[in-house]
Every structure is written in C-alpha cells, then in structure tokens.
Amino acid sequence: MPYYEAKEHAPGQLHEIFVDPYSAFDNTTTERLLHLMVAMEALIGRPLAEGQLCLRIIHGWENGGCDPEALWHSDHNVGSLDDMRSVELRFLPALDRQAPWPGEAGELLARPLEDAIRDAEAEGLTLDEGTRQTPSRWPAFRHGLRLYTLFKVYHRLTYGEDDPYRACRLHSPLGEQEVHEFHLEEGEFAVMTPVHGASGDHLLILHPSQLAPVLSLLEGSQTADR
After folding, report:
1. Residue 122, Cα to own-chain centre: how many angstroms?
2. Which pTM value belongs to this model?
3. What's the angle, vertex CA 177, arms to CA 172 and CA 178, rounded to 5?
4. How far apart are CA 86 and CA 89, in angstroms?
5. Strand ranges, E, within 64-107
6. Cβ distance 151 to 113 under 8 Å?
7. HSE-CB of 82 using CA atoms within 13 angstroms
8. 160 CB-near residues (< 8 Å, 6+ apart)
9. What tens digit of pLDDT does each residue of 3-54 get?
10. pLDDT (tens digit, 9 = 90+) per residue, 40-98?
11. Going by DSSP bridges, is the β-strand pair 175-184/187-194 parallel, antiparallel, or unpaired?
C-alpha cells in the first residue's frame, strides 16, 4: 500500500506555531485557551476572511452505527460568521427533530469506496465481503488507506475522542491535505487544509450539534485577535 495515501500524526502547519501541538491544547497546559485561539485563527479565521472556507456538516451515524451509506453531509461556502450563523439556523429544525436532515447520503465514503473496489477488482484483486465491509481492511486496496483515514476522522467527530488534538496528512483527489482534529470541552471539529503554502479551500468539518459551540469559539478568537 503506497504510504503517501495517508500518514497519521504527520507534522503540519501547527508544528510551525507550537513546539508540540499534541500538548498545546491539553487541559493541564497553561494558556491552552490562548493556544486554541491562535490555532483557530490560523486554520479557520484567516481562510474565512479570505473567502476560502467551506463548512461541512456531517450526520447520520448514531447509536454506534457507522455504515458508509448512512453518512450524510452538507457543504456550505461561508465568508463570515454571519454566514455560519445562517447555516446553524438551517439545521435547528433538524436538531429539534422537527425536520429531516439536509444533505446527501453516501457521497463522502460509500461512493468513493465503491469506485476503489471496482478499480481494485479491474486490476485483478479479489476482495472478500469482510474486506469490503470492514474499514480497517480497506488499506488492502488502492485508495483504501485514504478512505479508512477519513472514516476514522468522521467516526471520531461523531462519537468523540479522548485525545484533544490529532493530525494526519492524506493524498486526496484535490492534492495533499492536512487534517487537524480538535476534541475539546469547548467543541469538537476538524479542519482539512491544503499543505502549508499550497492554495485551495479549507474545510471545517463538524457534527451539527457542534455548530453552536464552534461558533462561540470563533467569536472568541476574533475578539481576542482585535
């Protein structure tokens, strides 16, 4: 399996800001909230101000479920906090279970997985049902490691994670990307960015239940930056 499809704990942009990003946001770290504000400004605030931020809402997994077909998403180009507040308002009826979730199902994992399996079989690889249905076995075929890495990101954003910060690098159809995950008392979210210095949009990925907390964090980071 080509190593460049994905790499866990790969150094990224925050390693240029903090000596050790993995400890910068820990509850025992002095000035952890200041560190968080700095990181959010670098990863979210700047691309938001430059019109290069897309807000991706993921939902559909619950009660331990993680079927790729059941994972829905909805993407929203945002250029301000007001734009993000408007997205939050659109999701309130669904959060209150008074309306169905907006978005599309299957496009984040299930469709790319089908394509990767079809390509692998066209190349002569025989895949049993266990490999097809078990994410940890996806790295057995080309593009499977990238899909498995994304699966883990979406799973952690849905069900939580003990580590306050995680980072990985993966090779996507859009080029090489960094993924920065935050699992904090104040909110859980991930940011997928082009590798440092490359151009392109940034993705802010979160579960709809995290819209309000992350908005509060962003408001705080903008206030601190003034």
Report:
1. 31
2. 0.93
3. 140
4. 5
5. 72-78, 104-105
6. no
7. 0
8. 183, 188
9. 568 998 888 899 999 999 999 999 889 899 999 999 999 999 999 999 999 9
10. 999 999 999 999 999 999 998 989 999 999 999 999 999 999 999 999 988 888 777 77
11. antiparallel
pLDDT at 1: 42
Q: Tokens 């990985």 sit at which residue? A: 168
Who's near 181: CB < 8 A, 6+ residues apart?
153, 156, 157, 161, 165, 166, 167, 189, 190
Within 8 A by CB and 6+ apart from 154, the residues are 58, 61, 71, 108, 109, 205
CB 183 within 8 A of CB 172: no
Residues in the chain: 226
Residue 69, amino acid: E
Q: So what's the pLDDT on residue 78?
A: 95
Q: Average of pLDDT values for 168-174?
A: 88
- Cβ proximity of 46 and 16 under 8 Å: no
